[in-house]
């Protein structure tokens, strides 16, 4: 997001220079202001308290060792700080990507699990995702994020939230359960509870942590709820010796920093990894653009979608080279950084340095962190993914888009996370095509006291001009809807009393392709044979030029193209002496 405060003086930098164009984050660091440092330091330390437990929790959600979440957090923060354009956007492991990563890599991991192979596969996935995103940014393909409409994204996220919640319930209850797909996981969890596998101490610490996180987020949103719960749960483990009561703990993390690693995977794995990377890149881009736009709108700043894509791509590549996995923008962590006074990406660099110091100097700091607490962190994040108010609003205001949202939800729950994103994209594209295939169409009439001509559906008592029907078609006329256009015109021509003119209010028609041109040629001949003239008003110049190129004016009388509806109606009145009345034309379906 090329974020520049509207009307504010910008720090000196090489505008349009190579560094600013290729690495806007680095250019901002070159022009860093010393007075920002205290706030960036405080915000970075606050952010660290959130990054560590969430990074570990989301790594396990992705089917990876918890330590990889910290590796990923460090490198993606550094990568975005150098190549990202936003001064405050925070990237990291994300709850919405975790199930997608797991769905991609787990089928490729050998039986009984091989953590090193899983890490290698996840790293390749991050490299692929980063490469796709960078190439999309260089090619200025930010519009691909629009392939998922908001209603289908709401349904997708609702389905994702439910699958994440169900997948984490066994860990929250202190046991593990096997299951294939959503239904299998539900059956596995219910079976585990039924046969008494629940660990009471684990459920108490996990459920208590979840309640505290949700409560703090709603009642005291400025309090770092995750940090509070992590500290309290670690203290509880020491006070009540929960490790001896069957509560699984994180344990001591591996000490040190991961080396630069080129992951080694089989060539046969690349096809599935590429499919997963495409889906992850699409969701990550949609999330990043929407989050960046939301924070930019609050400060009067501007989003450069292409530079954002390059920045997030660089963050993924950096993570992939150091045993990390794909990342995305985090709205919650960005909000924490903003509330803590973050001024630049130095906030992220402080967080990266702090996590590195923990790994190097205090790897046992979180050894008593209960696994059910990590499950509570993930479940709380899944709850925030769901948008029930948005779903109910769709039901109230537009049932068609509500149905799309429900279909996307069902796609995720029934088919799985990766097929679910394909369902969401297909539904979004299908909805666009449906609107173009059957655009809104209506008859217009005159309303006393209101200038112009108006939709008879909105004004049922509008006057109609006897012998003349004014028809509006709200969309381009092309191969997919040419038959719909023809049938509507023919139906109007058969109405009683029979019209002499059918005037097409053509201002909303943005295009006419060759298929539609052939249709108009045949339609005009049929209408003329029945004594009806096809007339156009307010046709856009580019469309009129195409009509001329197609040679349609050899069939359609050139004098039947009018600049406005008023001029067309005046010409009809002059020719026929007709009068205005009510109910003289049939309304279209």
TrEMBL record:
Pfam families: STAS, Sulfate_transp. It is found in: Membrane. Residues 458-572 form the STAS domain. Keywords: Membrane, Transmembrane, Transmembrane helix. The chain crosses the membrane at residues 41-58, 64-83, 95-113, 119-143, 155-173, 193-216, 223-240, 270-297, 309-326, 346-366, 373-392, 404-427. The keyword Transmembrane applies. The keyword Transmembrane helix applies. It comes from the Bacteria. Its main location: membrane. It is a multi-pass membrane protein. NCBIfam families: sulP. This is SulP family inorganic anion transporter. It comes from Pseudonocardia aurantiaca.
